[in-house]
Amino acid sequence: MAVSTAACLAVALPGFALGQTATGPEHAASAPAISHRAAPHRGKTTLPSGTPIALQLETSVSTASSKAGEGFAARVMKTVYLYGRPVIPAGSIVEGRVLHVKDTRPAQGHSELLLHPDLLTTPSGQRYHLIADVIQTDPISGTEVDSEGMILSKRGPSRADKLRLIAGGGGGAVTGAVLIGAKAALVGGGVGAAAAAGWWLLRHRHAEMKAGEHLTVRLDQPLRIESVPAMPSRGGRRH
């Protein structure tokens, strides 16, 4: 019985050792490695309502020439990011329509221009419907924006108007002094300034923005869009 037991152990132990070798470090090293690196994310992203988009006009718009229903186009100046990921690439095109035009004189109120951006096209050709309002115009345009997104002409005289008022008063004063005398110069100056002021009040003051000028729109409703995969930067991570 002792010999039989020893023989059984002699047969069983090598098998046990072989079993350990089969599951040891050498076997683990030969197993395929599992990568924990995440695949590039490309999916739908929702930009929240209130997101601003900086644009540059591709077409001019003006209360002097634009009509309700006409189209306009602008280019996205800066990439729009959400949580550090690019969503709307720079160079995308925003298109829309002119909804309202009112061209008037300063004495009667503001000239008004209402733009309705409604289509976004990315450089890759993807198109998305959007609803947005204008919230800011280029200072050089001489316009302002009210709380409803209406672009307005400023009622006060522009720099050119002020120069014209000064020139009108000066011209009247010179004319009065030459024809009558010093006392008439004061009267002539007043008449000239009044004439220039009347011209400013009666002429149309257009609300207009030229191609190349900047404006900012703000999403009025969330925009669901396919996000652009973030590309690794050689200069480091974007924060």
Structure in words:
This protein has four helices and 15 strands. It is of the alpha+beta class and 239 residues long. It has two domains: 44-155 and 206-226, Beta Barrel (Lipocalin), CATH 2.40.128; 159-202. Strands 2, 4, 7, 8, 9, 10, 11, 12 and 14 form a nine-stranded antiparallel beta sheet that branches. It has a two-stranded antiparallel sheet with strand order 1-15. Residues 5-40, 169-179, 181-189, 195-201 and 233-239 have low confidence and may be disordered.
Short recap of the structure:
The protein is built from four helices and 15 strands. It is an alpha+beta fold.
Q: So what's the overall shape? A: elongated
Strand content: 25-35%
CATH topology of the largest domain: Lipocalin
| Biggest β-sheet description | 9 strands, antiparallel
Low-confidence stretches: 5-40, 169-179, 181-189, 195-201, 233-239
Number of discrete helical segments: 4
Q: What is the secondary structure topology, with strand pairs?
A:
Layout: H1 2-22, H2 25-29, E1 44-47, E2 52-57, E3 61-62, E4 71-76, E5 80-82, E6 85-88, E7 93-102, E8 112-121, E9 127-129, E10 132-137, E11 143-145, E12 151-153, H3 159-179, H4 182-202, E13 208-209, E14 214-219, E15 223-226
Antiparallel strand pairs: 1-15, 2-4, 2-14, 3-13, 4-7, 5-6, 7-8, 8-9, 8-12, 10-14, 11-12
Helix pairs in contact: 3-4
